[in-house]
Write a structure and sequence with these properties.
Blueprint (H helix, E strand, L loop, with lengths): L4 H6 L4 H9 L3 H12 L6 H8 L3 H14 L2 E7 L5 E7 L2 H35 L7
Antiparallel strand pairs: 1-2
Length: about 130
């Protein structure tokens, strides 16, 4: 990942890059998300782990990160004889896009504020009297 904003703007970015850029998602997180998007049915953690060819505990950590970011939803399924298990499915893409747009707007406002603070700070420094050596 590029270090500076100018480097980021110069490089080609694909939509999956947003997942990493906005939420710091890892490659495995993106693979788990893709597995959920590609299926018609909600999946258990075991099914997700199988789809991405990873251990259950590794897939579970990725699922937890996806839940935290709001990219996926969790639903409880109850057994008739008692007990339950969880299944996961992707969040509506328009909701994810709205959340990212909101986050971008917040970031933009914060950067604007920091730029104004920078300008004020260095305008004051520029306006202070200079000593003249003669």
């Amino acid at each position: 990942m590029p270090d500076s904003m100018s480097e980021q703007l110069q490089q080609d970015m694909v939509c999956e890059g947003l997942l990493e850029c906005f939420h710091g998602l890892k490659q495995l997180d993106k693979e788990c998300f893709r597995a959920l998007v590609d299926t018609e049915e909600p999946l258990t953690v075991d099914e997700i782990a199988e789809a991405v060819d990873r251990e259950r505990s590794t897939a579970y950590r990725a699922v937890q990160r996806l839940l935290q970011t709001g990219f996926i939803q969790k639903e409880q399924v109850n057994y008739d004889q008692g007990g339950y298990y969880h299944v996961y499915y992707p969040t509506d893409p328009s909701k994810i896009a709205d959340d990212m747009q909101r986050m971008l707007n917040d970031w933009y406002a914060k950067m604007g504020q920091l730029i104004q603070e920078f300008e004020k700070k260095y305008e004051q420094a520029d306006a202070s009297p200079q000593s003249v050596e003669g």
